[in-house]
Amino acid sequence: MALLLSLLCILFLVSPVISQDMLYEEFLAQVQACPKECRCPPNFPRAVYCDNKGLTSVPKIPPHTWYLYLQNNLIEVLSADALRNATQLRWLNLNRNKITSEGVEEGVLNSMSHLVHLYMDDNLLSSVPSPLPATLEHLRLSRNRISKIPAGVFIGLDKLNLLDLQGNKLMDDAVTEVSLKGLNNLVQINLAKNQLTSMPLGLPPTTTQLFLDGNNIEKIPVGYFKGLPKVAFLRLNHNKLGSSGVPKNVFNVSSILELQLSHNQLTEVPLIPSGLEHLHLDHNKIKSVSGSNVCPVSVDAVDDSVNDSVPRLRYLRLDGNEIKPPIPRDVILCFRHLRSIVI
């Protein structure tokens, strides 16, 4: 062991790869405290790799760890004792374990006052864990059993910009303005593959990417997107949307760049906003498409010399419907930037 430590110390002194913000004494302490079940590379001393080891509990983590990889194990409890020294953590990966909500000991996450990324996909959580550190920017909790978002759990998380809750058991009454309060700078929220029957309420106006695929949503309220002035990427594939549940101008939002409505029950093409670039309407029940119905401006008013007047649609997917080629000429005249049409 002494020889190994000596070799590592020599490597530390000669290698330019070692981080310059780590003191020699800290490096020694980190190497000596490395759990026997884990791997602590000397050229990346702030990282501890304990993944794919068949672990049933979290080993005691060295004090100067920034990156901790515990994915693909059999861990059931997130122990405060094991992580007591890991107060400098920036990145914690706990994907694909067996952690339950009861197994997350009180205060264990909140004590990590530098944590930026928390990954707990593919566990057995029934609720969003709390309290969470105010430094968090990315929170991934997909494919758990989450049916509850505790009120106030996100208050104080002003840096959180990505929230992934796909593949859980969330119903309409769980996703509300009260439960989402505090997400003041959220950019991306993924609520795909849950049990929603209506569009979620209370989404922050900063939302840019909204993913709602694989739910049971049947309609979109009139003016729904007025509260989401920055939404640019919207996915509603694999829902139960019919044309009667999609108000004519509901997508007429200047910020939307990509709209995915595949695998629904639409019988008509919705009005396409001028700024939209990608539109997925495949596998619906649409029988026809015409420029007079879907063009956001009069076809006669489209002027190539005035760039702002030309709708920006570049990609249109219509396969899996009841439309027979060719695409009508007035559609081509309207969407002059089209590069690809799948029919």
From TrEMBL:
Transmembrane segments: none annotated. Keywords: Disulfide bond, Extracellular matrix, Glycoprotein, Leucine-rich repeat, Repeat, Secreted, Signal. Its main location: secreted. It is found in: Secreted, Extracellular space, Extracellular matrix. Residues 1-19 form the signal peptide. Residues 33-67 form the LRRNT domain. InterPro entries: Leu-rich_rpt (IPR001611), Leu-rich_rpt_typical-subtyp (IPR003591), LRR_dom_sf (IPR032675), LRRNT (IPR000372), SLRP (IPR050333). One of its GO terms (cellular component) is extracellular space. Belongs to the small leucine-rich proteoglycan (SLRP) family. SLRP class II subfamily. This is Keratocan.
